Amino acid sequence: MPRAERPQSTGRNRPRALAGVTLALGAMLLTGCAPEEGPPTLTWYINPDDGGQEAIAQKCTEASNGAYRIETSLLPNEAASQREQLARRLAAGDSSLDIMSLDPPFIPELAEPGFLAPVPEDVAQRTTANVVDGALAGARWKDQLVTVPFWANTQLLWYRKSVAEAAGLDMSKPVTWDQLIKAAESQDKYLGVQGQRGESMTVWINALVESGGGQIIENPEAPGDEIQLGLTSDAGIKAAEIISTIGKDGLGSPGLPTQDENNSMILFQGDKGSFMVNWPFVWPATNAAVESGSLDKSLIDDIGWALYPEVNAGEEARPPLGGINLGVGADSEHPDLAYQAIECIVSPENQAEYFVTNGNPPSNTEAYKDPAIKEKFPMADTIRESLEQSAPRPQTPYYNEVTTSLQQRWTPPSTVDPQSTPQTTADFITSVLRGENLL
Amino acid sequence: MSTSVKTARPQTAQKPAPQFSDRVKAERRLGWLLAGPAFVVMLAVTAYPILQAVFDSLFNYRLTAPDEREFIGLGNYATILTDEVWWRDLGVTLLITVVTVVVELILGFALALVMHKALKSVRGLLRTAILVPYGIITVVSAFAWFYAFDINSGFINNWFDWVPGIDPDLNWFAQGGTSLFVIMASEIWKTTPFISLLLLAGLAQVPDELTEAAEVDGATWWERMSRVILPNMKAAIMVAVLFRALDAFRIFDNVFIMTNGAFGTEVLSLLAYRTSISRLEIGLGSAVSVLLFICVLLICFIAIKLFKVDLAGARGGK
Q1: Contact (CB, 8 A) for A390 and A203
Q2: How far is residue B143's CA from residue B254's CA, in Å, rounded to a whole number?
Q3: Contact state of A401 with B152 under an 8 Å Cβ cutoff
Q4: Number of other CB atoms surrounding residue A188 within 10 Å
Q5: pLDDT band for position B312 (50/70/90)?
Q6: Is residue B98 in some structural domain?
Q7: Within a domain: residue B36?
Q8: Is there a domain that residue B26 lies in?
Q9: Which CATH superfamily is domain A154-319+394-433 in?
Q10: How far, in Å, CA of A381 to CA of A368, rounded?
Q11: Which helix (H) or strand (E) holds A70?
Q12: Which residues of B touch A (CB under 8 A)?
C-alpha cells in the first residue's frame, strides 16, 4: 500500500501528479490485485539458515509438478523476535502464513488460541513415523499433533581430550556436572556454558532440572493462574547449586554473564577451553575456522564429544531440545497444499541433505542412515542418542513469561542462591501469571 | 519527535488575538492552509493510536488469548504503579535523562563556542566533523559501542587498562553501573552535536555589539559569558534542554542493543516494548505506554510553565 503514496507532487503540476497517481495505482494492480497465474503460491516463513530451506523449497516446488509453488520469506534472527512477528500476524488473521518454521517452545502459545490449522490424520501418521521422541513431544499440544517435526537440535558435551586426560576423567562413560566442575578447577580452565540473560539460560536451567528428575512446570497445560512450579524440588535446588558454583567460582570465565553459544565456543577453542555444552553447530564452525587458518589444526584432533553431563551419577541426563517444526496458519488459503508441501519438505532425504549442508540435525531417525552424514558429522550417532533422551522446555502457552522470569532471576549466575533463588523465582512467576506483577 | 511537534502547536494558537490587519489575517489563513494537511495527518497517526492505547489499557487483553479479553477499568494502572519494576525503570530513565542532558549541555556549549569562534575557512569542515555522530543511526552507534566494550570483541579493556578499575577481565555489561556508563556515554557521544547545533544558533543570536560593548567596558571573559551571552541565549538553551530531555526520556535503542534491560538497566520504553510486543499483553502494555506518555507530557508542562521555555522565541526572532 505505501507504494501509492510515493510519487509526491507539490500540487502545482497537476498533470504530473495525476500521472504519478495513475502509475502508482497501476503498479499496485500489477503486483497486488492482479489475478494470480499459474499454480498457487505457498509462503514459507523461514528462520535464517545457510540457504537450506530455500533449496528445499525449490526442490519441493519442482517435485509438486505444478501443484504449488513455495516462496520463502525470511523471519528475524532471534527466536523470540520470530515468535513476536508470527504471533502478531496470526492474531491479525494474515492469510499468507501458509508454512511457518516454528521454534518448539512457542508452539503451545500459538496452538491454544487455534492459530494453527489442524494436521490431517494421514499427514500426521506419515510424517511422525521414525521421529525421535523428544522432537515428537515438542510438536504436540494437549495430546494432539499440531505441527510437523522438521529438524531437531540437541546439545552435546564437547571436551578437549588433553584436559579430560590431565584431569583423569574417563570420557567413555557418562560424566557428571560435579566432575566437570572439579576438573575445570583442578586444571585451571574455564567451562563453556551459556550464562547470558537470554533463551540459552533457560535451555541450561531446563536441562539441569530435567536431568535431576524434576520439571520446571509440573502441570504445563493448566491455565496461567493455576500453574504449579517444580523449581523448589530437589532437582531445582541442585540445578541452582551447579549454576551458582560455576558463577561464584569464576569457572565460566569473566564473560559468563554475557556468554551465549557463540562466545562459549570461542572460549572453548581458546587456551583455557576444557568442557562445553553446546549445539552441534560448533563442529562445522570450528572446522571452518581451522580451514581458514584462524585456528590451529591440532585443535580438531583434541576435540571429543559425549552425551550431555548427568546431574546425579547414574541417572541418565535429559539434554536440551531445540530445532524447528513446521506449522500451517489457520487462515491460510491453501492448508491442504501446505501440508502436502510439508510432507515433501520433511522427507528423510531432505532432512539428511539439510544436515549435511546446513548442520541442522534431522528429527527422523531414517535420515541418519545417509552415509554423507557420518562423513560430515562423525558424532551423528551421539546426536541421535541425545535426541532420544532429550527433554523439551516447559510446554505452556505462557512460555514467554516463564523463560523471561527465569532469565531475570538466574542471571548473572554468580547471584544465584540455591537456598532462595528457586523459591523467589517460583513466587515471581506465579504472581506474573496471575497478572499481579510486571515482568 | 512527535511530542516536540505537539508542544509547539498550542504556543502559536494561544497567542492573544486582538485586532489584526487584513494582511495578518490573510497570512494566518495561508498558514492554516499550508499546515492544515500536515495537521490532519498528524492527528490520524498520533491522536488515533493514542486514543486506541488509552482504550486498550482498560482491558485485560492478551493477543494470543483474544477470547479472554475482559474489562478491568484502571486495574492495569494499579498493577503497574504498585510494582517496583515500574519505579525502578522510572528511576533509571530519569537518571539517564538528567546525566546525559547535563553532560551534553556542557559539552555542547563548548563545541558551539568552538564552532562559533572558528576561522571562517575551517568552520564548514568543523561543523561537519562535529555533526557526524548525530548523523549515525542510533542502532548502528549502539552496536559500535557495544562491540567496543564487549569483553569478547572489545578493545577498550586493552587500550585503557592503565585506568584504575579497568582490566582485561572487566565485563562491562555484567552489572548495572558499568552498563549504564556505556549506555550514557554512547548517548552523549551521539546527541551532543544536536545540542551544540541548537546552542550555536543561540550564540549567533547574541548581537556582537553587546559583547563588544562589554569588552570595551572592561568585562572579563567570565563576566561577558554570564552577564551578556548566556542571558541572551536563554531561549535557545531552554529549547535545547527540553528537546533533549524529551528524547533522552524515551531512550530505547542503546539499552535494547547493549543489555536488553539486563541487570537493572531497563528503561520505561523498553518496559512498554517488552510488555506489549514480547509478552503480547496488549492491555498492560498499553497502560505502560499511556503512563510513559503522561510522563513526557509532564516534562513538557514543567518546562513550559515553570521554566517558561518560549518555543517561538528560538526560531531566530529577537
Answers
A1: no
A2: 8
A3: no
A4: 9
A5: low
A6: yes
A7: no
A8: no
A9: Periplasmic binding protein-like II (3.40.190.10)
A10: 8
A11: strand A69-74
A12: 60, 63-67, 79-80, 83, 85-86, 150-152, 169-171, 173-175, 260, 262-263, 271, 274-275, 277-280, 284, 288
Query: Which of B64, B71, B88 is most worth mutating to test chain A (most A CB atoms within 10 A of its CB)?
Result: B64
For residue B33 the three cell numbers come to 492552509
What are the tens digits of pLDDT across the range A124-134?
999 998 999 88
Average pLDDT of B184-208?
91
Residue B74's domain is classified under what CATH number? 1.10.3720.10
Q: Which amino acid is at B246?
A: L
What is the CATH topology of the domain spanning A41-146+322-383? D-Maltodextrin-Binding Protein; domain 2 (3.40.190)
Give residue B129's domain range. 57-315
B171/A80 touch (CB, cutoff 8 Å), yes or no: no
Q: In angstroms, rounded to a whole number, what is the distance separating the alpha carbons of residues A125 and A128? A: 6
The shortest CB-CB distance from B279 to any of A198, A256, A400 is to: A400
Q: From B281, which residue of chain A is nearest by alpha-carbon distance?
A: A435
Handedness of CA A20, A21, A27, A31 (dihedral sign): positive
Within a domain: B23: no
Nearest-Cα residue of chain A relative to residue B282: A88
Please check whether residue A368 is in contact with residue A382, taking contact to mean a CB–CB distance below 8 angstroms: no
CA distances to A99, A145, A150, A152, A273 from A119, rounded to whole Å, are: 12, 7, 14, 19, 45
Cβ-defined contact of A197 to B260 (cutoff 8 Å): yes
Specify the DSSP element, H or E, that contains B68: strand B65-71
A403: closest chain B residue by CA: B279
Q: For chain A, where do the domains classified as CATH 3.40.190.10 start and end?
A: 41-146+322-383, 154-319+394-433
Segment A144-148 shows an average pLDDT of 94
- All residues of chain B having their beta carbon less than 8 Å from the beta carbon of residue A91 are 63-64, 66, 280
Confidence of residue B318 (pLDDT cuts 50, 70, 90): very low
Q: Which of A170, A159, A176 is nearest to A315 (CA)?
A: A176
Q: What own/partner pairs with CB < 8 Å and gap ≥ 24 does B87-90 have?
A: B88/B264, B88/B266, B89/B266, B89/B267, B89/B268, B89/B270, B89/B271, B90/B268, B90/B295
User: Which residues partner with A117 through β-bridges?
Assistant: none
Beta-sheet pairing, A41-46 with A69-74:
parallel
* Domain count of the fold of chain B: 1
Q: What is the pLDDT of residues A27-40, one digit of tens each?
A: 544 444 445 568 89
Q: How confident is the model at residue B160 (pLDDT cuts 50, 70, 90)?
A: very high
Evaluate the omega torsion of the peptide bond into residue A105 and state whether it is cis, within 30 degrees of 0: no
Cβ neighbour number for residue B9 with a 10 Å cutoff:
13
